[in-house]
Structure to design on (146 residues):
């Protein structure tokens, strides 16, 4: 399981308590201080696509998925949790302690959707907020076409 340093709280509107339990069975990925935004996988995958198609294709940083692929976690700069208020998502503070990635793969199969690079940049919170908003609208429109 991906462990967030000593959690001291988060601002959330997530509907599932599992939203802050994300796994990362990657080895050798050093991740510096960051917070973690978690979202339902369907919305998160759409947001990843939006970010990658944008003008700044490097706007998306490392992204985790849980073993069931129900939840995605975006690494964002530390301090993001203090002002995060995007409905349907949660942002967990790590108090600058960063994330500890286990050396051995986890049995549940979670891991990196987009692994950290050598410099391990994080996703810009404003870009993520806009992408999640757009993703929600796209998914709502798709669901209404059924």
């Amino acid at each position: 399981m991906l462990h967030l340093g000593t959690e001291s709280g988060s601002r959330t509107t997530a509907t599932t308590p599992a939203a802050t339990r994300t796994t990362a069975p990657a080895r050798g990925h050093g991740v510096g201080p960051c917070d973690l935004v978690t979202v339902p996988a369907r919305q998160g995958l759409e947001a990843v696509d939006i970010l990658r198609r944008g003008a700044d294709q490097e706007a998306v940083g490392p992204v985790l998925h849980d073993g069931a692929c129900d939840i995605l976690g975006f690494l964002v700069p530390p301090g993001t949790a203090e002002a995060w208020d995007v409905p349907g998502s949660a942002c967990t503070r790590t108090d600058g302690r960063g994330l500890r990635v286990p050396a051995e793969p986890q049995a549940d199969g979670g891991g990196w959707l987009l692994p950290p690079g050598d410099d391990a940049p994080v996703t810009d919170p404003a870009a993520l907020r806009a992408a999640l908003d757009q993703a929600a609208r796209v998914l709502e429109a798709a669901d209404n076409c059924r």
About this structure: The first strand starts at residue 3 and ends at 4. The chain is about 25% helix and 20% strand. The longest helix spans residues 125-144. The helical segments are 41-53, 125-144.
